[in-house]
Specification:
Layout lengths: L8 H8 L6 H15 L3 E5 L25 E8 L2 E10 L2 E8 L5 E7 H4 L8 H4 L3 H17 L1 H13 L4 H5 L98
Antiparallel strand pairs: 1-2, 2-3, 3-4, 4-5
């Protein structure tokens, strides 16, 4: 901020210099001038968050504003919004907080009084504030900008969140119906044991008898129908067809017809 923007600081110092007790008062006077210079108007002391539009708005500090030079509380209004300025002295450091009453957003800045305010007996506050342009820049960036420019941070956060896919977008069905998940098999894959694939013939219980080719079906042939077998009957089945059929092929011993099954003569079987 150029020196021309210090307009009003000297006048404020002349009005309040008699009421200042120490460097803490001078620091709060400087902060008050900066707020007034940026459009704020004082509406009293205290930390009441209720805004009364009937109260007088002033560029001057209210009576009794520095009654406690360890803790300050001043109320301001700008653009019909209430702000509360707190100043707390802790170990020669003035901690300044500016609270927006409606949104409860707060900004803060800390100043070492010995490094910010020189000899308190100087006749001009302009000369008392060390590197006054730097202190004004700090007040602008640390105290006012976080509240007045807070919308830009919110909008950037909203943009970042909106760029992430929503659950509805994740679960949405693409145009043309649901997508098919295809498993790609590598081309030119050599299968062991002649290229038929291990276990493929076991999927066909009839093996090479039906469909031709292949090695031969399951290990246990359920129909006894492999080529070269005597007859296509279940192994061990008692089949005695009636009629003029050619003689049956003798089965290898033991023949299941030689011995009756257990309990064959039990009428309750």
């Amino acid at each position: 901020m150029p020196q021309s923007d210090l307009f009003g600081l000297e006048m404020l110092w002349k009005l309040e210099s008699a009421n200042l007790a120490d460097k803490a008062d001078a620091m709060m006077l400087f902060v008050h001038w900066f707020l007034v210079r940026n459009g704020f108007r004082n509406v009293g002391v205290g930390d009441d968050k209720t805004l009364n539009n009937a109260v007088d708005q002033s560029e001057l500090l209210p009576e009794g504003w520095n009654g406690n030079n360890k803790s300050y509380a001043l109320r301001y209004i700008m653009n019909n919004e209430l702000y509360i300025l707190h100043g707390t002295l802790s170990n020669d450091t003035m901690i300044v907080n500016l609270l927006q009453a409606q949104s409860l957003q707060v900004s803060n800045a800390a100043f070492n009084l010995d490094k910010t305010i020189t000899s308190f007996n100087d006749s001009s506050l302009t000369n008392m504030v060390v590197s006054i342009d730097d202190q004004i820049t700090r007040l602008q960036t640390e105290l006012i900008k976080p509240l007045c420019d807070g919308g830009s941070k919110s909008s950037s956060t909203q943009t970042l969140i909106s760029s992430s896919p929503s659950p509805a977008q994740v679960n949405a069905v693409p145009a043309g119906g649901p997508r098919r998940i295809e498993v790609l098999r590598p081309s030119g894959l050599l299968l062991p044991f002649g290229g038929g694939g291990v276990g493929r013939d076991d999927l066909n219980p009839l093996g090479g008898f039906v469909g031709g080719g292949g090695g031969g079906g399951m290990l246990m042939d359920p129909m006894n129908m492999r080529p070269g077998r005597a007859d296509p009957f279940l192994p061990g089945a008692r089949i005695d067809p009636m009629g003029p059929f050619p003689p049956r092929v003798q089965r290898p011993n033991p023949n299941p017809d030689h011995l009756p099954p257990p309990g064959y003569d039990d009428m309750f079987m």
